[in-house]
Each structure stands twice: as structure tokens, then as C-alpha cells.
């Protein structure tokens, strides 16, 4: 999503210039009915621009989520989801899954290695009792095995990254989904209000008001698929 | 302090890695009888039907959050005296207060060290023994 491409002030200026030209033309033709209609439309430019900006924002966010791609290096590690599509939430889910697999592999190795080290320490102590082991050698072996066990425990605790990062990624995915849903709900509601007020040109309204109302109810009740989001934005003119 | 190492412990966390980490640390301390659950919803029936002596639970879980599990345990006449340790990434003051009010015996914020977990467990069992 590129917020740098949308200049709200420039948008308002362009629209007002357009309306001003239209007004001037009506006055030239002594079309007073047309002139008063343009004046009403000028008043609506502010809300229209906000609506248009929201629409661009929603479209930009949706496009960024759907078309998110990692670079070639990342593609080696991250795969598309089962539907064959890339997409930000899908890739983030892949990150969680891959880090979970990596942590699981490490923990599997630790599950077998830590008991082996503890057994070695126990065996060493038994040997120390049964045989005459030089104290210096015994102490060195004890220290070495203790350090190995300590290092393995550090590796174990480091796997906690997967839990914390996984929780953070899930929250980000949730926020993205909610943001997209709320923007579209706001757009749909704004368009519905505009349709009722009948003050704006058809180019930014639905071709048929009824489907918009039905879609508004649907978006309120269920999470939309990416394709449905695309269709809804397109129907709203974005 | 000598810990009751024969205590049956239930570890509840929706992330497998964290369940296994806590289990391994408990093994390192000397506990042997450790069961795992991936959500408060799966943990509660295990607690009701088992003879667990200690509960370690996360907070954020999909179906039944840890705080609700704690409340359910404290509301059950057979389980209400069970020592409970909450191990979670949630570190806001209000949440810690909420957990204390729900009845946890102690609270660890992730990430934690094995020494911290051991110290908290010792403190809890010392408190239980003192009652």
C-alpha cells in the first residue's frame, strides 16, 4: 500500500476546479437549475473526497495483503498456501508454521540429548566411586558435562521465541483482518448514506442500491474471503 | 526446600514449544509426572477427572483463556485448593492484578529462566506447606 500516492488536498482542489468549471458553464448558458445543482454538489465534495480517500485506502490495504510477495531468497523458505496464492496473512501463517517446525525439531533433539547427558553425569559419579579416578580428571569431566547440560538448557529456553513471535504474528494478522473489515464496513455504510441523500453523482454509487445493503449485512456477520473483498471494493467504485 | 517431586502437574499452553519447554524444565527440577494440554477447554476436564496437584497455565488460548481456567478451578469444590502458577507473555499491571484476584498463587512473565520457574514453584509449595 503506498500512502504517498494519495494527496487529499490535491484531490479536493481538482474536484472543486471541476465543479467550478461546471458552474461557470451553467451560468454562461443561464441554466440556473443546473447551477444550483452544481452548488449543492460542491458542498458534497468534502465528504466525497473523504469517501474516495477511504476507498483508496481500503483498496490499497487489500491489494497489499493479497499480493504480498517475499523476495526470491525468502521464497526458498516460504511457500504459497494450499490455495496457491501468496498474500500477507498467508505468508505470516507460514512463518508461524515454519518456526513451529524448527522449534519442534530442536526440542525433539533435546528430548533425547538432555537425558543422555544426565545419564553420563550419573555414570561418571558411579565410576568415580568404583574406580580410582584422578581428582583433577574427575573435576574436569564434571565441569565439562555440567557446561554441556547448561548449554543444552539454554538452547531449550531459546525455543521460547516461537511462542512469543507466534503470538505477535497472530495479533498482527488479526489487526490486519479487522482493519480491512472495518474499512470496508465504513465504506459500505458511507456509500449507503450517500445513496440515500442522493447528492452525489452515480459514478461513486452502486449501480443498484439493494445489493449494497445485502452485502453490508453479510460483511457485518461473516469474515469475507479475499475474492469477496475484491468484488465488494469494485462494486463500490474502487 | 524439599519439593514434593511426586506431584502430578498439568501444563497448559496453546504453543507446543512452550509446553515442552516447561515440561523439560520441570524434569530438570526433578518432577516426573507431567501432563500437557493445549487449551483451557481441554485442560478443565483433565483436572476434574485426574488427581493433579499443580497447574501451570498460559493466559492467551483460543477456546478458553487461562484466566477463565483459573476461575473455573477456584469455583470447583474439589479443585479450589490446587496451587496455580500462571506463565504468560501478558505483563500489564491490570492483568497481573486480575490474575491475582482470580486466585493464582504466582505469576511469571515470558521469557523466563529455569531458575525463575524453580524459585516460583518452591515459593508456591512453601506457601502451601505453611497453611
Compact summary:
The complex is a heterodimer of chains A (238) and B (131). Chain A is mainly α. Chain A is built from eight helices and no strands.
Describe this structure in words.
The complex is a heterodimer of chains A (238) and B (131). With 238 residues, chain A is an all-alpha fold. Chain A contains eight helices and no strands. Chain A has a domain of 123 residues. In chain A, 79% of the residues lie in helices and 0% in strands. In chain A, helix 1 packs antiparallel against helix 2 and helix 2 packs antiparallel against helix 8. Chain A is rod-shaped and about 120 Å long. Chain A starts with 7 loop residues before the first helix and ends with a helix. About 13% of the residues of chain A have low confidence. Chain B is of the alpha/beta class and 131 residues long. Chain B has one domain: Response regulator (Rossmann fold), CATH 3.40.50.2300. Chain B is 47% helix and 16% strand. Chain B contains five helices and five strands, in the order βαβαβαβαβα. In chain B, strands 2-1-3-4-5 form a five-stranded parallel sheet, with helices on both faces. In chain B, helix 2 packs parallel to helix 3. Chain B is globular. The mean pLDDT of chain B is 93. Classes of the chains: A mainly alpha (238), B alpha/beta (131).
Task: Give the CATH class of chain B.
Answer: Alpha Beta
Strand content of chain B: 15-25%
Average the pLDDT over all residues of chain A and give the rounded result.
Answer: 77
Write down the CATH topology of chain B: Rossmann fold
Question: What gap, in angstroms, lies between the N and C termini of chain B?
Answer: 16 Å
List unreliable stretches of 5+ residues of chain B: none
Mean pLDDT of chain B: 93
Q: Residue share in helices of chain A?
A: over 70%
> How many separate domains make up the residues of chain B?
1
As residue ranges, the low-confidence spans of chain A are 79-85, 199-222
Largest sheet of chain A at a glance? none
| Category by helix and strand content of chain A | mainly alpha
- Give the strand order of the largest sheet of chain B, numbering strands 1, 2, ... along the chain: 2-1-3-4-5
- Give the name of the CATH superfamily of chain B: Response regulator
Instruction: Compute the number of helices of chain B.
Output: 5
Order of helices and strands of chain A: HHHHHHHH
CATH arch. level architecture of chain B: 3-Layer(aba) Sandwich
As a percent range, the share of helical residues of chain B equals 40-55%
Describe the global form of chain B: globular
Terminal-residue CA separation of chain A: 14 Å
Amino acid at each position: 500500500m503506498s500512502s504517498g500516492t494519495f494527496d487529499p488536498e490535491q484531490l479536493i482542489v481538482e474536484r472543486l476546479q471541476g465543479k467550478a468549471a461546471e458552474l461557470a458553464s451553467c451560468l454562461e448558458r443561464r441554466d440556473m437549475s443546473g447551477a444550483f445543482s452544481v452548488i449543492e454538489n460542491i458542498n458534497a465534495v468534502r465528504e466525497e473526497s473523504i469517501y474516495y480517500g477511504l476507498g483508496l485506502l481500503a483498496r490499497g490495504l487489500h491489494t497489499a495483503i493479497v499480493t504480498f510477495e517475499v523476495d526470491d531468497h525468502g521464497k526458498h523458505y516460504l511457500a504459497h498456501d494450499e490455495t496457491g496464492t501468496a498474500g500477507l496473512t498467508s505468508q505470516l501463517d507460514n512463518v508461524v508454521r515454519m518456526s513451529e517446525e524448527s522449534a519442534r525439531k530442536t526440542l525433539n533433539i533435546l528430548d533425547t540429548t538432555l537425558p543422555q547427558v544426565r545419564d553420563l553425569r550419573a555414570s561418571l559419579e558411579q565410576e568415580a566411586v568404583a574406580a580410582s579416578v584422578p581428582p583433577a580428571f574427575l573435576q574436569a569431566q564434571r565441569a565439562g558435562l555440567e557446561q554441556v547440560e547448561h548449554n543444552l538448557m539454554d538452547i531449550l529456553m531459546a525455543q521460547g521465541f516461537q511462542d512469543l513471535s507466534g503470538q505477535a504474528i497472530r495479533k498482527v494478522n488479526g489487526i490486519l483482518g479487522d482493519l480491512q473489515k472495518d474499512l470496508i464496513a465504513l465504506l459500505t455504510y458511507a456509500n449507503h448514506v450517500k445513496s440515500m441523500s442522493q447528492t452525489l453523482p452515480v459514478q461513486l454509487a452502486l449501480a443498484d442500491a439493494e445489493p449494497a445493503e445485502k452485502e453490508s449485512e453479510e460483511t457485518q456477520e461473516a469474515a469475507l474471503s479475499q475474492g469477496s473483498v475484491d468484488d465488494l471494493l469494485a462494486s463500490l467504485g474502487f | 526446600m524439599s519439593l514434593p517431586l511426586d506431584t502430578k502437574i498439568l501444563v497448559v499452553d496453546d504453543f507446543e514449544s512452550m509446553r515442552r519447554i516447561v515440561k523439560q524444565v520441570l524434569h530438570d527440577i526433578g518432577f516426573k509426572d507431567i501432563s500437557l494440554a493445549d487449551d483451557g477447554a481441554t485442560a478443565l476436564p483433565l483436572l476434574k477427572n485426574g488427581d493433579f496437584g499443580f497447574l501451570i497455565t498460559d493466559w492467551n488460548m483460543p477456546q478458553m483463556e487461562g484466566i477463565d481456567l483459573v476461575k473455573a478451578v477456584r469455583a470447583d469444590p474439589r479443585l479450589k485448593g490446587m496451587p496455580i502458577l500462571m506463565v504468560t507473555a501478558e505483563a500489564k499491571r491490570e492483568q497481573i492484578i486480575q490474575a491475582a484476584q482470580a486466585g493464582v498463587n504466582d505469576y511469571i512473565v515470558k521469557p523466563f529462566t529455569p531458575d525463575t520457574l524453580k524459585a516460583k514453584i518452591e515459593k508456591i509449595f512453601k506457601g502451601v506447606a505453611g497453611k
